[in-house]
Amino acid sequence: MGKIINGKQIADEIKEELKEKVKKLQEKEIEPTLAVILVGEDPASQIYVSNKKKACEYVGMRSLSYELPEDTREDTLLSLIKELNNREDVHGILVQLPLPSHIEEEKILMMIAPEKDVDGFHPMNVGALSIGKKAFLPCTAAGIIELLKRSNLSIEGKHCVVIGRSNIVGKPVSMLLLRENGTVTMCHSRTTNLKELCQQGDIIVAALGKPNFVTADMIKHGAVLIDVGINRLENGKVCGDIDFEGCKEKAGAITPVPRGVGPMTIAMLLYNCIQGAEQGEE
Length: 282
Ligand code: GUN
Prior knowledge:
The structure is a single chain. By secondary structure, the protein is α/β, with parallel strands linked by helices. The protein has 2 domains: about 30-115, Rossmann fold (3-Layer(aba) Sandwich); about 140-260, NAD(P)-binding Rossmann-like Domain (Rossmann fold, 3-Layer(aba) Sandwich). About 40% of the residues lie in helices and about 15% in strands. It has a 6-stranded parallel beta sheet. It has a 3-stranded parallel beta sheet with strand order 3-2-4, sandwiched between helices. A two-stranded antiparallel sheet has the order 9-10. Helix 6 (about 140-150) packs across helix 7 (about 170-180). The radius of gyration is 19 Å and the shape is globular. Guanine binds near residues 94, 97, 119, 139 and 168. Guanine (GUN) binds next to strand 4 and helix 6.
């Protein structure tokens, strides 16, 4: 049976390290602060935002919460971001996605000052990542790399198969795996030979949003399986994009859902925000 990668435990370790960083900043009278903006009442987004705020509290960081109604005008949101960009006591700004359809997501993400863009979604940070410059890294992608490193699973020279090409996960994790000297294959909904490609993967990252999509016949013995999916089934249970029960014997290592990649995303968000506060002190 493969090793079960305990993302919750690794995220807790990171949070303990971050507590120390927060204390050091506070000794210098810097209060690391994350501003979280939620527009509308999407239940999943409400849970994500609430978890982010709780995690800030846990490591001793301040969070400012802006919960705006569904019919908030685009220019109102832009003004709020501008105001937060100018506030010296705010180090990170996060706008929870998705936004209501009358608001143009790209315009909003472009407005966030790149040095406060703790999600790493601003084109400046996306560009910096792609040319290997220092940047805020998108939290889930960075969390996956951290999970692999802290589990002593090497990336260099490994064939990494990424399923899903989203801006939030698929594209940035591919860039990061490449930066770690992996050989990366990016697969998506139009890939014709997905099964054959997956069967060649030493590391598979599933981030496509389809419950139990990756099955045992699609993987090779000893493959490292990273599951980014969070799918709610009709029976109320949550499952990933990888068939955990079917794959766990054949895999070399596998992340569970929940308690796998999810907790790492939040830990890396806190990491980014504290990094932002540290940069501010220079
Ligand atoms: N919606 C789903 N994932 C994310 C994320 O990582 N950041 C933000 N801001 N919104 C999201």
